[in-house]
Design brief:
Layout: H1 5-21, E1 36-40, H2 44-55, E2 59-63, H3 67-86, H4 92-101, E3 102-105, H5 108-112, E4 117-120, H6 126-139, E5 145-148, H7 155-159, E6 168-172, E7 182-187, H8 193-205, E8 209-214, H9 221-237, H10 243-254, H11 260-267, H12 269-283, H13 291-298
Helix pairs in contact: 2-3, 2-4, 9-11, 9-12
The structure holds nicotinamide-adenine-dinucleotide.
Nicotinamide-adenine-dinucleotide binds at residues 40-46, 63-66, 69, 121-124, 128, 132, 149-151, 172-175, 267.
């Protein structure tokens, strides 16, 4: 089991040793050498990021404020490696080596103190992100990079909670992380070129392709995706077509792998509404959430996670 005390102490020793061996350039002094990554938050995204990080060869510490969530994440990561082996995506040796590199961390301090690169994946609330980044800033080396997996919040605002805005960057992964190829790298106002380079290198070693986005609400993907989903809800509200036919039209006519309603049920209607409200506040009228979407959220039709969204599902086990 990965979560034993002895295992944790051994791994922390390894992480400290790695930190001592590091040769890390300062700003303007060449490339950063990233060996040890800390992932903060072990939910849907954090556990996937920990998976690709460990598989990419990084010593990976995974922390969650909830011990139960951390335990669930470790169980899921083991299952994901089994699935990867069964699908021929990873070898048994690669999976074992990756699991050796992955350690649970009971505290933020234990996870972050010796990390070269931190990826935050706590819930999408600005106050929580600010508090987490302020704490991380006090814990990690001055030249360590702090990345946020926020879907739509301002990375510049998050960076301002630290004394190292040049070392703060957005690193937007997609769900499910082990399968989705893209990482959007988000350049905030003060993000240094070295930080962007280090982030692109980390993503590459995790097997991802990257695109670089200047910070703006919703980046590329969330902005376009929210717009398509909102338009689909307006069409449903106007009675233009059924949800099934709108989904079928986008899949078969426009070659989208999923229909907008299938996608929104997967993402969660509440999550999508929160993104749209943010885009509406920051980018203007064309992002006003469709009243029918608001109504679905009020009715508790939040998507697959509760068994009912635009469509009905068999209740998924927690
Ligand atoms: N779900 C997606 O499809 C998706 C895609 C891209 C980006 N994101 C972003 O990733 C982030 C995480 O989303 P998620 O879907 O994984 O959420 P989640 O709710 O599944 O997981 C969040 C985890 O963070 C933990 N947590 C809460 N406060 C914490 C703290 N102070 N310190 C450490 N851990 C803490 C929670 O216990 C939980 O396990 C959000 O910013 C979200 O917008 C989500």
């Amino acid at each position: 089991m990965l979560s034993g005390h002895g295992a944790k102490a051994r791994v922390l020793d390894r992480l400290r040793g790695a930190a001592r061996r590091l040769v890390v350039g300062g700003i303007g002094a060449g490339a950063l050498s990233i060996q040890a990554i800390a992932v903060i938050g072990s939910g849907l995204m954090g556990r996937g990021i920990a998976y690709v990080s460990a598989l990419g060869g990084f010593r990976t510490a995974l922390h969650d404020v909830s011990p139960e969530a951390l335990e669930r994440a470790l169980v899921q990561i083991h299952k994901d490696f089994d699935e990867g082996i069964n699908r021929g995506k990873v070898t048994t040796d690669q999976a074992h080596a990756a699991l050796e590199r992955l350690v649970p961390a009971a505290s933020l301090e234990a996870a972050a103190t010796d990390a070269d690169f931190v990826i935050e994946a706590v819930p999408e609330q600005m106050a929580l992100k600010l508090q987490t980044f302020a704490r991380l800033d006090a814990l990690v080396r001055p030249d360590a990079v702090l990345a946020t997996n926020t879907s739509a919040l301002s990375v510049t605002e998050i960076a301002a909670a630290t004394k190292r805005p040049d070392r703060v960057v957005g690193m937007h992964f997609f769900n499910p992380v082990p399968k989705m190829k893209l990482v959007e790298i988000v350049r905030a106002l003060d993000t240094a070129p070295e930080t962007i380079d280090a982030t692109a290198d980390v993503a590459k070693r995790m097997g991802k392709e990257t695109v670089l986005v200047k910070e703006s609400p919703g980046f590329i993907t969330s902005r376009i995706n929210a717009m398509i989903g909102n338009e689909a809800f307006y069409m449903l509200q106007e009675g233009v077509a059924t949800a099934r036919d709108i989904d079928t039209a986008l899949k078969l006519g426009l070659n989208h792998p999923m229909g907008p309603f299938e996608m929104i049920d997967l993402v969660g209607l509440d999550t999508r509404l929160a993104v749209l409200e943010f885009l509406h506040r920051t980018l203007g009228e064309k992002y006003r959430p469709a009243p029918l979407l608001v109504q679905h959220v009020k009715a508790g039709r939040l998507g697959r996670k509760v068994g009912r969204g635009v469509y009905e599902y068999e209740r998924e086990s927690p």
